[in-house]
Design goal:
Number of helices: 10
Number of domains: 1
CATH class: Alpha Beta
Shape: globular
Strand order of the largest sheet: 1-5-4-2-3
Mean pLDDT: 90
CATH topology: Glutaredoxin
Helix content: 40-55%
CATH architecture: 3-Layer(aba) Sandwich
Radius of gyration: 16 Å
Number of strands: 5
Low-confidence stretches: 1-14
Order of helices and strands: EEHEHHHHHHHHEEH
Strand content: 5-15%
Structural class: alpha+beta
CATH superfamily: Glutaredoxin
Distance between the termini: 27 Å
Length: 214
């Protein structure tokens, strides 16, 4: 995925970096795994922003991932992701099903955005999908991810199926569309939008000086 960014004059976030992610997104995997350490190193606070790419793709006339629609592009992407994960020493196993349904996991994130355990859960879900080839649409897999993040899963998964959680995720996706987000991962800070794992370092750098330039 080739990154880019453009100005969002209506969006002022100071030094905070919004991390917009979708669990089916391949390039979100290395970005999510490394963003906390990188942000902490530079003193940049993070906001985790789950959303769904499906409605965005549908608005563009796509019924599937562009990596499936365009096989040559998909072939390149998988090899590129292997290289990236290898360079970062991140475990990688190509999922036997792509894209996997991350709806329930995204609802968990939308409902519990302010929870301190959420980043650990997000990384556990990505690892389940892209390192262990597990079906993240299954509640049993998400229950294990929640246990890894230090929480009893039953009540959390029940809330994730509530109308409030469903509305929260719809609102997140609507926000993403309003911001002009068209892919994942996307980072937003200090009136700027950065798209792609390869733009994470630029997004961190912008966040460090965003309060002075916004």
């Amino acid at each position: 995925m080739i990154g880019c960014y453009f100005s969002l004059d209506r969006m002022k976030q100071g030094t905070h970096l919004q991390v917009w992610f979708e669990f089916a997104s391949t390039y979100s995997y290395p970005a999510v795994i490394r963003v906390e350490q990188l942000a902490s190193l530079h003193g940049v606070p993070l906001n985790w922003e789950p959303f769904l790419l499906g409605p965005i793709f549908k608005s563009q006339g796509w019924s599937d991932s562009p990596f499936n629609i365009y096989p040559v592009k998909g072939h390149y992407m998988w090899r590129d992701l292997e290289r990236i994960c290898g360079e970062l020493a991140i475990p990688f196993r190509r999922p036997s099903v792509f894209p996997r349904n991350g709806l329930l996991a995204a609802r968990v994130c939308a409902q519990f955005k302010a929870s301190v355990w959420l980043p650990a859960f997000i990384k556990a879900v990505y690892s389940a999908n892209f390192a262990h080839d597990l079906d993240i649409s299954q509640a049993s897999v998400l229950a294990e991810c929640l246990q890894q993040s230090g929480h009893e899963p039953r009540a959390i998964l029940e809330q994730a199926n509530s109308p409030a959680a469903k509305n929260a995720l719809r609102n997140q996706t609507d926000r993403a569309i309003t911001l002009g987000i068209f892919g994942a991962p996307t980072f937003v800070s200090a009136a700027e939008l950065f798209w792609g794992n390869d733009r994470l370092d630029a997004a961190i750098s912008w966040s460090k000086r965003g309060a002075n330039t916004a």
